[in-house]
Amino acid sequence: MLLTQHVTRAAATGTSPAELRTGCRLRTCLDTVHPDLAEEMKQKQGANRVPVALRRPKWVPAIIVEVSVPISYKVITNDGVQMKRYVDQLLPWHVSPRKKV
Description:
The protein has 101 residues and is an alpha+beta fold. It folds into two domains: 2-44, no CATH class; 48-92, SH3 type barrels, CATH 2.30.30. It has helices at residues 2-7, 17-22, 29-33, 35-46, and strands at residues 51-55, 59-69, 72-77, 82-86, 90-92. A five-stranded antiparallel β-sheet has the order 4-3-2-1-5, with no helix packed on it. The protein is elongated.
């Protein structure tokens, strides 16, 4: 109930309480059902072929193929192995992994 209350736009301001607080619109499960937003999300996910560094025993280059859930990704390594990894096991390619001392 609280999520519904926070994402419902007020008639006086034209924005929701969440928009006033965070500065952006919160998305709900119903937003993904809307045809325009569902297509937009598919296009964004298709464009997510982002180069990343993947943590195995060592950091190796990989490419994000698909967003499974907000914190889980399907990636393909340079040798063609496809696997699922969580966000804490990936780094943007331009960021170098921290070395342990």
